[in-house]
Design a protein that fits this description.
The structure holds two protein chains of two kinds. By secondary structure, chain A is of the alpha+beta class. Chain A has 16 helices and 13 strands. In chain A, a hairpin with a 1-residue loop joins strand 1 and strand 2. In chain B, a hairpin with a 2-residue loop joins strand 4 and strand 5. Classes of the chains: A alpha+beta, B alpha/beta.
Chain lengths: ~425, ~300
């Protein structure tokens, strides 16, 4: 018998169809029912308009889409042998705002998704604090908007740089929001200072704390999530940033990656119409996102956790929370080093002179995000978007399971629904 | 994690075709906790709710305030129930209906997903063609892509305090949308003296003449109250795209349409002749201060 579960309060909506074997999941398929046709909307438009339209793919990670778009356009210029000169300042500002968006995403995920979902599986005391997530996310957004003008839905990146031309006033304001956010993270989530937390090398050290993160860690262990939710133990990271290392990993061995090996395949969803497509690398499924980034980045504590618990649900959750800490530290560093006397933007040749193809790849909160564009005399002929959830939460046949399908196999339905969310699902991105 | 339930304003947040941007923008409201404390949230796409989407979609409950985010697509379903049916059921008993964002107000970005059938709740751009036309007296449009959190904070607070909300002909609260995005722009002096921005990425110059800025034609209080309490598009050098207006999204966002190097559209309520007269005179002056950098870091070394 196949039972259907509606997954709500993700970004959008999804359904999972379970085939059970007694009390445990034998096979599950995933459907994403809503579709907006972003790629078609982009066709025929001025290529610069992509910078206004693609952020609207997603209300929680639109900034990552903006950056993927601008990188795609810049790569098209380069393919036409036109130099794009990005000042160090523009690169640092872009990176800062991108990682502030990741931080707000992870914060909301902890307090609006993870903790409520854990609460469905076991009693949790002193943990019902959803507004902590919203408050911390709003601080990250203030720091972000100090450069981007607003969040969500900014369009402040253009080929050749950024539109803002900040003074040290804005930089110092952003620093003060960032420090407030770090203090909040230390007091409300970690129960210890950021620097000490970042020096941790084992999960035992997390357990020694008395805070939200130690309670989350304890709950995961008592639910056995260190022994459940395994995917293929294969990871992929594509985005080139100061906080990520593009590579693919099988267990703990790293290999280089090339975007030409990325392919797309229709979803298998016999019970229900779905608009999602699966993303593969060299015809294999890989997990992407914070755990993948921590593994390819050789973050000591995550490597240690992985040694014991592999790519379990536990490892996935701890990696996402730990990533907040490392990104906050990286953000502080960026603001400190930012040199404002450089130019913000060097305008390339006018867009109508451009006939070329381009690809833009970034690390979005949930993992690899790819934009591909084909431009003819400045107009978009074709646009393709591949989002992180397409990597993690595809739906395929039993012979060829996607990471989430494999991770849900062999556990109870309740556990499977929790494991599903440990990937941090974005339905609106998936079916752009 | 249900919230406590006593006699509070019951609030239901439903979605059509959307990116969730309005939901996320609202979470940035500085007094979010106060507003939520005064409401019972039947359902919200990310906040703790009293009900699940499954119970909401049985259409057996009612709410005081119905909030709708996203473009209305008559063929769309939520949990296998037509969104139109959900809307009509909850709209009937609701005291107030709030369309959050330009999609729910006028069709917006995702009208283009199916242009022949998609619309806002009352309006299809400016035409009265939406599914809740019969309840239009109760509908407040908070256009914007996305909404500014303060706009919804204001509207809910006014409802909670039982104050009357005056609206314009497009059902937008006058206290929020009688301002133009131009009001409070730090580039106003450049606009007055018709000094355009030579390129993107500079503090100086007005973005209206060449860079596509629609702030003088756009009803919104962005530059009066600022975004995320810190900035705005124009303050960070990005043109206003006119996202609160029924014709959003237009095209060629980063370029001003001009005739003989004069912007095709002039500020709201100003006749083209008056505008051209003033602009012509202003342009005859060369003001050195406005043609130089505000701050020249290189000479300061």
């Amino acid at each position: 018998m196949i039972t259907k579960q509606l997954i709500e309060q993700i970004e959008g909506e999804a359904t999972v169809h379970f085939t059970m074997n007694g009390n445990t999941v034998d096979f599950a398929t995933v459907a994403f029912p809503h579709f907006r046709g972003m790629e078609r909307i982009l066709q025929g438009k001025n290529a610069l308009d992509a910078l206004v339209i693609t952020p609207r793919v997603c209300g929680i990670c639109g900034h990552a889409h903006l950056m993927a778009s601008v990188r795609a356009l810049e790569s098209a210029y380069v393919h036409m042998s036109q130099d794009i000169q990005l000042s160090t300042k523009a690169q640092m500002i872009r990176e800062f705002t991108l990682l502030m968006e990741i931080v707000q995403n992870h914060y909301k995920w902890i307090y609006l998704t993870l903790i409520p979902e854990l609460g469905k599986l076991m009693p949790l005391s002193n943990m019902s604090t959803p507004l902590k997530g919203a408050f911390a996310a709003s601080l990250a957004s203030k720091a972000l908007a100090s450069f981007s003008g607003q969040w969500p839905h900014s369009s402040y990146m253009l080929p050749g740089g950024v539109t803002c031309d900040p003074t040290h006033m804005e930089r110092i304001k952003a620093q003060s929001y960032l420090r407030e956010l770090i203090a909040f993270f230390e007091n409300e989530t970690l129960g210890i200072d950021l620097e000490t937390f970042l020096s941790f090398e084992s999960c035992k050290e997390i357990r020694s704390l008395s805070s939200d993160i130690s309670r989350i860690e304890q709950s995961l262990l008592s639910l056995g999530m260190h022994e459940k939710g395994f995917a293929y133990d294969r990871f992929v990271v594509f985005g080139n940033h100061g906080f990520s290392v593009p590579s693919k990993m099988k267990q703990t061995r790293s290999y280089s990656v090339k975007s030409k090996y990325v392919s797309i395949k229709d979803s298998y969803s016999p019970q229900e119409k779905t608009f999602a497509k699966n993303a593969l690398y060299k015809n294999d499924y890989y997990e992407t996102g914070p755990l993948a980034r921590a593994m390819t980045n050789s973050v000591p504590i995550i490597r240690n956790i992985h040694r014991r618990f592999k790519d379990s649900a536990y490892s996935r959750v701890v990696a996402r929370i730990f990533e907040i800490a490392s990104l906050l530290q990286h953000a502080l560093e960026l603001l400190k080093l930012m040199e404002l006397s450089e130019t913000s933007l060097t305008m390339p040749e006018p867009i109508h002179t451009l006939t070329a193809e381009g690809i833009g790849i970034v690390e979005a909160p949930r993992g690899v995000l790819i934009h591909k564009v084909s431009i003819e005399e400045g107009l978009i002929r074709n646009y393709e978007i591949i989002t992180p959830t397409q990597w993690n939460i595809g739906s395929d046949t039993k012979e060829s399971l996607t990471p989430v399908q494999l991770a849900m196999q062999g556990v109870t339905q309740e556990e499977a629904l929790f494991i599903f969310r440990t990937f941090d699902v974005c339905s609106v991105c998936t079916t752009h | 994690m249900p919230l406590k339930s006593d006699k509070k304003l019951t609030l239901l947040w439903l979605q059509g075709l959307t990116c969730n941007g309005n939901s996320h923008s609202f979470l940035n409201l500085s007094y979010l906790a106060d507003v939520l404390l005064a409401c019972d949230i039947l359902y919200h796409p990310s906040l703790p709710s009293l009900q699940t989407l499954e119970t909401i979609s049985t259409c057996k409950l009612e709410c005081d305030v119905l909030i709708f985010e996203g473009t209305f697509d008559p063929l769309m379903q939520r949990n296998n129930v037509m969104v139109g049916k959900l809307l009509r059921h909850y709209a009937q008993k609701a005291r107030h209906i709030i369309a959050v964002g330009s999609c729910a107000s006028f069709g917006g970005m995702f009208k283009a997903s199916a242009p022949q059938r998609n619309s806002g709740l009352v309006f299809n751009e400016t035409a009265h063609e939406g599914p809740l036309l019969q309840y239009q007296e109760k509908v407040i449009n908070l256009s914007g892509c996305p909404i500014h959190p303060e706009w919804l904070g204001y509207t809910l607070s006014m409802i909670l305090q039982e104050k009357k909300i005056l609206v314009d002909s497009l059902h937008r609260p006058i206290e929020l949308y009688s301002y133009l995005a131009h009001h409070g722009c730090t580039r106003n002096e450049y606009f007055e003296w018709k000094v355009d921005s030579k390129k993107f990425g500079e503090k100086e110059g007005c973005l209206y003449y060449e860079q596509g800025c629609r702030a003088p034609m756009t009803h919104a209080s962005c530059n009066k109250i600022l975004w995320n309490d810190v900035s705005s598009k124009t303050r960070s050098g990005t043109p206003c795209f006119g996202c609160t207006e029924p014709d959003f999204p237009r095209a060629n966002f980063f370029r001003t349409k001009t005739n003989m190097s004069i912007p095709d559209e002039v500020p709201v309520g100003i006749s083209k002749r008056s505008y051209l007269t003033v602009a012509g005179i202003a342009k005859t002056f060369h003001i050195k201060r406005l043609e130089e950098k505000l701050i020249d870091y290189k000479t300061a070394d």
